[in-house]
Amino acid sequence: MTAVMATAALLLTVSCSSDDGGSPGQGGSAASSTTGSGSSPSRRAAEETPPAQGSVKVLRTVAEGLNTPWGLAPLPDGDLLVSSRDEATITRVDGETGKKTELGEVPGVSPAGEGGLMGLALSPDYASDHMIYAYFTSASDNRIVRMLYDGQKPSGEQLGAPDTIFRGIPKGFIHNGGRIAFGPDKMLYAGTGESGDTGLSQDKESTGGKILRLTPEGEPAPGNPFPDSPVYSYGHRNVQGLAWDAEQRLFAAEFGQDTWDELNAIKPGDNYGWPEVEGKSDDAKYHNPLAQWGTDDASPSGIAYAEGSIWMAGLKGQRLWRIPLNGTAASADPQAFLEREYGRLRTVVSAGGDKLWVTTSNTDGRGSPKDGDDRILEVQVS
C-alpha cells in the first residue's frame, strides 16, 4: 500500500510540474468526446458534418534544423515566420525551398523552463503596416509586443524595436500560455497560463489562466464580457491553442494536470473550471470541454481548423488529433494520426484548404531529437 501511495505522489508531482510531459507518467487513457455545457445549437446553414474517419498525409518536410520552434505565422507570399523559444529569434522560412533567413533577436526575452519567445501573429493590416506581434516571457512577466519587419535590411537586423502593447501577465517556470492570434473580428486573442499559481485562474482581476481579447493597440476589446477588462474567458489552466471554425466560433486547447487535457468551445464570460474541476464536471456553472484526453495521449499545444475538424498537436502524446465538429460539439470520437512518427508536435497552422503546417518540438529539453529536428511539415488532411 505504501508503494502505491508513493507512486501516486510521484505522478502528481510530475503532472503538476510539467505540462509538456517531460517525464513518463501513468495513464494513456483513451480520448473521450463530451458535449460541453453552455454550447449553443449548431448553425447548419453553410456547414456539413465531416465524416467520422479522416486522413492525414505528410506531403513534405518544409524545413529542418530548427531550435525550439514555437510560434508560426504564414506570410502572404507563402513563406513562414517561426520563433525560437530559447534563442529568442524569429526566422523566415522559404515556403518552397526551406531556406532560413534570421530576421533578428527579440530583446528582453528571458527564456527559462516553459517560457521564452512563444506565439507569433501578423497584424490584420500587415500588407500596409508590416507589423509582427509576439508573446514572450521577460525577466518580470509575460507580455505582448509588436515589431516592424523590414525585409530590405540585412539578415539579423530586420526587426524594429519592440513596442510593448500589453504587460503584466503572470510568469512562471511553468504554465506561461503563449499562443496569440487575430480573430475574424481583427481583435487579438491571447492564451495565458496560471504560472503554477492555481488561484489565479478563478480570479477575474488576474490575467493568468485566461483567454484575453485585446485591440491591436493592447486595450480591452469592445464588447468584452467584463467591463474595462481584457478577460474573455477564465478558469483555464494553460491555454496554448486558439482557432476559429468556418462560422467564426472560437476553440481553445489547454493542458490538464493529472487526468484530462481539454479542447473547449469558448463562450465569452464563461468559467472553464480550473482548478475546481479538471475535464468534464456535473456542476452547471463550469463550461464542459467538448473533448478530453488522458494526459499521456495529448498535452495539447497548437490547434487549427480545416475540413470541418479541429486539428490538435500533442506534445507528450506525440500525435496529431482530429476532432470532427458538429457546431460546438464533437460529431465523432477524436482520431489520432502521426503517432510517434515525428516525436513531439507543438504548433498547427492552416495552410489553406486541406493543408496544414505542423511543427515538431523535440529540441525543447523534453524530447529525443533526431537528425533534422526540429522541422516544419506540410500535411494534407481530410
UniProtKB/TrEMBL annotation:
PANTHER family: HEDGEHOG-INTERACTING PROTEIN (PTHR19328), HIPL1 PROTEIN (PTHR19328:SF13). Residues 17-54, 360-382 are annotated as: Disordered. Residues 66-366 form the Glucose/Sorbosone dehydrogenase domain. It holds the Pfam family GSDH. This is Glucose sorbosone dehydrogenase. InterPro entries: 6-blade_b-propeller_TolB-like, Glc/Sorbosone_DH, Quinoprot_gluc/sorb_DH_b-prop. Residues 367-382 have a biased composition (Basic and acidic residues). It comes from Streptomyces regalis. Residues 29-42 have a biased composition (Low complexity).
